[in-house]
Amino acid sequence: MSLSSRFRAAAVIATVTVVVAVSGLVALRQSPAAHPSLDQFYLLTAVDDDVADAAIEVIGTHWRDGYAGILWDMLRFLRPPVEVLGVQSSVPEHPSARVFRRLVGVLENKTGQRHGNDILRWQQWIWQQPYLPHPEYAAFKGRWYSQIDPGFGEFFPEGVESLIRLDEVDWGGVVPNGIPPLELPEHLSAAEATYLADDDIVFGFVVGDEARAYPKRILAWHEMAIDVVGGLDLTIVYCTLCGTVIPYESVADGRRIQFGTSGLLYRSNKLMFDGATKSLWNTLEGIPVVGSLVGSGLELTRRSVVTTTWGEWRRRHPDTTVLSLDTGYQRDYSEGAAYRDYFATDRLMFQVQASDDRLANKAEVVVMLLDDPAGGDRHPVALSVALLAQRPIFQAEVAGQAFVVVTSRFGASRVYDSTGRRFDRWADDSRVFDDEGRTWLVAEGELVSEEDPTVRLARLPAHRAFWFGWYAQFARTVLFQ
Question: Which residues have CB under 8 Å from 276's CB, separation 6+?
Fold first, then answer.
């Protein structure tokens, strides 16, 4: 079964569960007087029309467009009506479809919008409105989603703090850790990894004296690896939907954090969670965005990673280790098997609130967050992989940070702090010339002057992403194309 088929099947299961279980939902506390209590929204799903109509009247008396997010979350898991023009069906309408019609009717009546049964258009309209949700929206989301799996309820306790719009948090089609992370996976030497072809894609990095490669064909099925490389605890996060792999140090502010995959998305990017507090973390920034850790100042440290071919990585790092196929799970780990249909087109699986047509949705970009020298917000930067292929030595400066991107003939891009030095061209597969004819070794951690090895230029943490996913998170990004 394809991944999209599994998502659709999971949605049908959720639909049935919601319809059966909703009668047991109870509001645990009354909302402030200015807002209807959550139980009124639950009653919108009642089988009895009179009960639902009474709830509609109560909600209508207090209506604010910020409530639309609650109704959309309900619609998300209901079966839409079957529209057959000019044909009277003899099949009784599913109870879920009746509720769907009712909720759409409330939305159209109260907002004046006419999007009918098109929930994606409703979603976009909601995102265009100011974010003024019901004060207990998080509690609603936790109880509603907990019908799919109780674990979702732990992410949205009463009064939870959030840095992001909760109406942009969507279900990705699996339960928490339903896409199982690899925990301390088995590794092989390069010589033992006979299952890999030279042109297979890997994500490689070096910690201390140890090089490690994570094949895309394996990591795409797990989206996270908890591992130790060079004695350092790491959480390697892969959001397949937005094409991003980031190795994070697992220890932040002196505490080791155990992460899992929440099964939830924010702007089509996976949200991970920490096991201790069940806070949700933004995987592109490495910070908690929903939960008790919001405002804690915790931030994960990124490590540099390169996307390249197994052949190039092995030649540069003959002593590398690489993931074994013996993961403990039964998957089709052949190259390109995971997400094959998704990667084959420019279509998105989940829509985002903003897009930019300067590049195709899934055009690959090398991205980074540059520190502001004045201590302000970081500056997002994206460089088109197509541009870097044409200009294998590319230099620029953003917000006072000068950098150079060196891209190998196999497409591996590494970014370094140039400190204002100018570089000219590649000398061979491992060295580049500067504009004065001196050679520099392209190492994983630094650019090293061969004339004076004490002179080194630091590697800047950067990784690849799909353009749509990066832009959805960082609309003010500086794009080089």
Answer: 257, 258
Q: How many residues does the chain have?
A: 481
Cβ(223)–Cβ(240) below 8 Å: yes
CA distance 260 to 37: 33
Q: Are 312 and 410 in contact (CB under 8 A)?
A: yes
Of residues 353, 361, 355, the one with CA closest to residue 124: 353
Task: Name 432's bridge partners.
Answer: 426, 440
The three-point CA angle 20-26-31 to 5° equals 140
User: Could you write out the DSSP letters of every residue in 298-347?
Assistant: --PPB---EEEEHHHHHHH-TT-EEE-S--SS----STT-TTHHHHHSS-
394-413 pLDDT, tens digit each: 999 999 999 999 999 999 99
Predicted confidence (pLDDT) per residue in 313-324, tens digit: 999 999 999 999
The residue behind tokens 């500086």 is 478
Q: How many CA atoms lie less than 13 Å away from 308 in the CB half-sphere?
A: 23
Q: How far apart are CA 434 and CA 423, in angstroms?
A: 4
- Per-residue pLDDT tens for 98-141? 999 999 999 999 999 999 999 999 999 999 999 999 999 999 99
Name the nearest CA neighbour of 351 among 162, 132, 130, 125: 125
In the structure encoding, which two tokens stand for residue 42, read together? 């639950």
Please choose, from the candidates 258, 299, 254, 302, the residue with its C-alpha nearest in 3D space to the C-alpha of residue 277.
258
In angstroms, rounded to a whole number, what is the distance separating the alpha carbons of residues 343 and 335?
12
- For residue 102, count CB atoms less than 10 angstroms from its CB and return exposed for 0-12, middle for 13-18, buried for 19 or more: buried
Q: Which among 301, 465, 318 has a CA at the least distance from the CA of 380?
A: 465
Token pair of 133, please?
A: 């949700």
- Work out the burial of residue 94: count CB atoms within 10 Å of its CB; fewer than 13 is exposed, 13-18 middle, 19 or more buried: middle
CA-based angle 332:334:336, to the nearest 5? 105
Q: What digits encode the pLDDT tens for the residues 346-373?
A: 999 999 999 999 999 999 999 999 988 7
Kind and range of the H or E element at 145? helix 137-145
Encoded amino acid at 148, one letter:
I
Judge residue 162's burial from the number of C-beta atoms within 10 Å of its C-beta, 0-12 exposed, 13-18 middle, 19 or more buried.
Answer: middle
Strand order in the sheet with 463-466: 463-466, 364-370, 379-384, 478-480
Name the residue with tokens 């207090």: 62
pTM across the whole model: 0.90
Crossing angle, helix 95-111 and helix 68-76, to 10 degrees? 160
Structure token pair of residue 306: 């390169």
Q: Are 235 and 250 in contact (CB under 8 A)?
A: yes
- Angle, nearest 10°, between helix axes 68-76 and 119-128? 150
Q: How many CA atoms lie within 13 A of 49 on its CB side?
A: 3
